[in-house]
Amino acid sequence: MQRPYNFSAGPATMPAEVLAQAADEMLDWPDASGKRCGMGVMEMSHRGKEFQSIYDRTEADLRELLAVPANFKILFMQGGGLAENAIVPLNLSALRAAQGGQGHVDFVLTGSWSEKSHKEAGKYCQTAVAASGKADGFTAIPAASSWQLSDQASYVHLCTNETINGIEFQTLPDLKALGSKAELVIDFSSHVASRPVDWSKVGLAFGGAQKNLGPAGVTLVVVREDLLGHALPVCPSAFDYKTVADNGSMYNTPPTYSIYMAGLVFQWLKRQGGVAAMEARNIAKAELLYEAIDASGFYINGVARNARSRMNIPFFLRNETLNDAFLAGAKAAGLLQLKGHKSVGGMRASIYNAMPLGGVQALVAYMREFERTHG
Ligand SMILES: *Cc1c(COP(=O)(O)O)cnc(C)c1O
């Protein structure tokens, strides 16, 4: 049976192999030696040896896939990317604040998600906008050399892949080289594990799982150890990174099933050749779709070429009265969830790790045929 291709921005398509394995293990989970334990993963205590073994393997596989250095902690939390917009400032905004004084944080605004993060952080600290792409309608990344970084900032927040606007940082800025003492915090929700991360430039990275890692419900935080232990007194204990780290992400009950599913995705990623292999495939997929858009006079993507996302590709029909027909035809052709985000309209194809090249080829073929019959 050929499943349709699902271009949803998140929750998003999962590898079929992973779903089949989860189905097989649903009622009776087998350990690494194949021995069944009589319980499904949802029914296990998070304190039991079965779930602990799932957790340990999941963490180790992720550390290997993302080449996370030993001095970084990997935390599996709840609340999603949006909760992290509060949890990060609650933990890190006071890093460089004077005793008892308010912390300062800089934001580079490149789209909807960094704007959201900026707004939320303002509840907990002094925020400043170091640069913004809003005047250009978020179609480019302001050059790092133009950022107005403040002296006292504890960290600089970036959203390294703007899921809605289709903008992606192709390299991370080196804050030290820019004369800043701040840590770099990145929201990598929608491109984590699609490309390597240069951890030498990063203090903390966070991301919800439901784009590239697995189902909704678990949020990944990777944080350098020396940044732990600086939370504001009002920070909820369950959201204090040090408490979470000291308890191996089990200060309270973690989202066990989502962690298990993410673990199956990590095993799948390793079978695919790891993050470097995924990156090569993601480049090929994105090039195919952008080339098809740029070569046509019918479709348009307005993002600067050096800032285009490999993961989320918004595009518009020049004749927007054809939008409904385009979407209906796509659905009939087995190409699902291509409608753009309500704030920007048009179309958006999210082509995360789990989207095969064949899915993008099918989309491009459909787009050409639609243009031929409606152009
Ligand atoms: C989806 C997304 C979020 C929000 O995640 P939730 O799990 O809905 O809170 C945050 N940042 C980015 C970049 C995202 O793509």
From TrEMBL:
The keyword Transferase applies. Pathway: Cofactor biosynthesis; pyridoxine 5'-phosphate biosynthesis; pyridoxine 5'-phosphate from D-erythrose 4-phosphate: step 3/5; Amino-acid biosynthesis; L-serine biosynthesis; L-serine from 3-phospho-D-glycerate: step 2/3. Pyridoxal 5'-phosphate binds at W113, T163, D187, Q210, N252, T253. L-glutamate binds at R47. The modification N6-(pyridoxal phosphate)lysine is found at K211. It is found in: Cytoplasm. Gene3D superfamilies: Aspartate Aminotransferase, domain 1, Type I PLP-dependent aspartate aminotransferase-like (Major domain). It catalyses: O-phospho-L-serine + 2-oxoglutarate = 3-phosphooxypyruvate + L-glutamate; 4-(phosphooxy)-L-threonine + 2-oxoglutarate = (R)-3-hydroxy-2-oxo-4-phosphooxybutanoate + L-glutamate. One of its GO terms (molecular function) is pyridoxal phosphate binding. Signal peptide: none annotated. Its main location: cytoplasm. GO terms for cellular component: cytoplasm. Its cofactor is pyridoxal 5'-phosphate. It is an enzyme of class 2 (transferase). One of its GO terms (biological process) is pyridoxine biosynthetic process. It holds the Pfam family Aminotran_5. Residues 5-363 form the Aminotransferase class V domain. Its EC number is 2.6.1.52. Keywords: Amino-acid biosynthesis, Aminotransferase, Cytoplasm, Pyridoxal phosphate, Pyridoxine biosynthesis, Serine biosynthesis, Transferase. Belongs to the class-V pyridoxal-phosphate-dependent aminotransferase family. SerC subfamily. PANTHER family: PHOSPHOSERINE AMINOTRANSFERASE. Catalyzes the reversible conversion of 3-phosphohydroxypyruvate to phosphoserine and of 3-hydroxy-2-oxo-4-phosphonooxybutanoate to phosphohydroxythreonine. Homodimer. This is Phosphoserine aminotransferase. It comes from Rhodoferax saidenbachensis.
